Fold this protein.
Amino acid sequence: MDPSPSLPPSTGASPPGASAAPLPKPVEPASSGTRASPPSAAPRPAASAPKAPRRLGPITLDRRTGLVAGLAVTLLLLLAWAGTGYRYEPFVEAPAAPLSGEPSDGRALKQMAARLRDRERLLRSRLKAAAPHGVYIVIDQTHNRLYLKRDEDILLEAVCSTGSGMVLKEGSGRRRQWVFDSPRGRFEVLSRAEKPVWRKPDWAFVEEGEPIPKNPAERLDYGSLGEYALYFGDGYMIHGTLYERLLGRPVSHGCIRVGRDDLRKVWAATKIGTRIYIY
């Protein structure tokens, strides 16, 4: 038998005269135990979100805001048309009225000026005579400062502590009351003491909540007043302190507390009779 003729190699095209058959659609295998879901419906268009109101800074621009703004503008226009009732006029300073008894002519004015200059010189001389001379002490309670001065010169400016102004009331017994203020006025050094001993008054025991001792020796306190003390009357003195960290504050019971180094300078420069000015 003759061998069958060989076919030409395939070119991907159908032979002439042959109709092109449609290719079958691939079928996806259904998984076991599940059913094929029907095709989903087309998605609906999303509803449009409400528009945010327009704002001008913290103010919402809506119908109510427009109404309020219109009323405000109307009110301003009415005020501008009717006025506020005030009259605005430039201030004109009136000329100073002449003093009573003031001379009007030039010669009398010169004589008056000469009399005033003489009066000024007299007052200055009296003020200079009344001013303290030599070494003296000035205590400023407002700023808690002690000044040691000679005439007009400041020899020492020291931080001190003055009276606290606190009030202590006795809870039982005679129910006494003490006010811890520093005195004000002119004083002088009445006595001086080296290594002073403090004789504690009754209020010191009342303040500490201790019974008032009957033995005078139990009132004596050694070392709490520092190295020196200057007494100027009624139990008040300038003395040292164990609590220098509190200097500059009004924390004393009325005395003037000074630091150790400054107290040494005050002690060396003063004597009995040295004047003390406290204000």
